[in-house]
Amino acid sequence: MEEKQTSSPSPLPPSGPWQRVQLARHPRRPHALDYIQRIFTDFEEIHGDRAYADDPAIVCGMARFMGAPVMVCGQQKGRDTKQKLHRNFGMPKPEGYRKALRAMRLAAKYGRPIITLLDTPGAYPGIDAEERGQAEAIAVNLREMSRLPVPIVVVVIGEGGSGGALGLGVGNRVYMFENAVYSVISPESCAAIIWRDAGQAEKAAAALKMTAQDLAPLGIVDDVIPEPGEGAHENWDEAAASLARTLEHALGHLKPLTPQQLVDDRYEKFRRMGSFFSETNAATLG
To answer: 225, CA 20 to 30 Å: which among 56, 133, 182, 280?
Structure first.
């Protein structure tokens, strides 16, 4: 498990998208293993993709949640310099996504619900990852997660960056912490593309609609998980308790569904996203 929580100065209270981006990246914000340690019991980590290597940027394992068996997959950034290098700053490589898929298929085989915790600036863009099929690995995960006949609950606990997050993000229920962000691109990269100036990141953060408060009304996420005080970094135990309540609620609603109903529910959820057209009244066409 990762190191214990220690006190640290609080940042500015969240008053806008850019402030929430800073909180999502806060160095003391709890990561996947911090939540796993507090919420789940009997966690047994699964290593390796059975094809190339193990990717420490993604942790997977069997566990119990309130006594019931589940599979947990989370993106792990690391805390200090040594951990960050070991975890590749939370940027998974293809073997990480393939490991996660191997774990999720195992969960499906034994009928265990799957819980994924998203926290990554994005998939690793290095040439070695591209050579080993980064895009293909993410694409396969998207396809296969849409077909798994067990409940899948997704939670954005920090940064949900682009396809790197979405590779673990296809679920029946998708939740975000109050100060998490979820976007196709980082504010800095967006600003560099649109305005040729990464310094315009604050402006880009507002335009991207990347906060939980923006995404819940759009149906991208199902609900917002409250955080203690000015952010989850202030009280890891309280943040974990909020997450546990959300997971209990979600799994309770999904448990009665049959395997086919779970697949259909997931399919319909994502088909409802991104509808930007409305029917025109025939009478107005004259």
So the answer is: 56
The amino acid sitting at 60 is C
What 3 state SS string does the chain have? Answer: CCCCCCCCCCCCCCCCHHHHHHHHCCCCCCCHHHHHHHHCEEEEEECCCCCCCCCCCEEEEEEEECCEEEEEEEECCCCCHHHHHHCHHHCCCHHHHHHHHHHHHHHHHCCCCEEEEEEECCCCCCHHHHHCCHHHHHHHHHHHHCCCCCCEEEEEEEEEEHHHHHCCCCCCEEEEECCCEEECCCHHHHHHHHCCCHHHHHHHHHHHCCEHHHHHHHCCCCEEECCCCCCHHHCHHHHHHHHHHHHHHHHHHHCCCCHHHHHHHHHHHHHCCCCCCCCCCHHHHC
Q: Is 192 exposed, middle or buried (0-12, 13-18, 19+ CB in 10 A)?
A: middle
At 66, list the tokens. Answer: 């309130």
φ, ψ (nearest 5 deg) of residue 60: -135, 150
Res 46: pLDDT: 96
In residues, how long is the chain?
286
Q: What is the mean pLDDT of residues 174-180?
A: 96
Read off the tokens for 271.
Answer: 């088909």
- Provide the token pair at 63: 């566990």
Structure tokens given for 99: 């490991």
Residue 241 burial (C-beta neighbours within 10 Å; 0-12, 13-18, 19+): middle
Q: Is the pLDDT assigned to residue 275 strictly greater than 80?
A: no
Predicted pLDDT of residue 12: 45
